[in-house]
Amino acid sequence: MLPNGQQNWLDLYRAALLELDLEKMPERIALAKKALQERWEEIQKSCGHYGEKLEIEYAKRNLQVAKRMR
Questions:
Q1: What angle do CA 10, 54, 29 make, to 5 degrees?
Q2: pLDDT above 70 covers what percent of the chain?
Q3: Could you give the CA distance from residue 29 to residue 66 in angstroms, rounded to a whole number?
Q4: Nearest CA to 60 among 1, 2, 16?
Q5: In which domain, by residue range, is 22 found?
Q6: Domain count for the chain
Q7: Fewer Cβ atoms within 10 Å of its own Cβ: the N or the C terminal residue of the chain?
Q8: Is the pTM of this model over 0.85?
Q9: In whole angstroms, what is the distance from residue 50 CA to residue 64 CA?
Q10: CA 4 to each of CA 7, 35, 42: distance values in angstroms, whole numbers, following the listed order
């Protein structure tokens, strides 16, 4: 089971990438980016979380690509 913070950004990230309605996509991407940033700030205060930090970096890049492809 994932921690709540990680599950939150992951759910929003997936929803953004899987959105088929191009008019809804920018809002989904914005929500996912906000959740990613909040989680990033949360885990920066603690040791570890290397794997999740890497996942967040990949997710940020993927959202940038998705935004450009719209």
A1: 40
A2: 93
A3: 8
A4: 16
A5: 4-69
A6: 1
A7: N
A8: yes
A9: 22
A10: 5, 11, 12
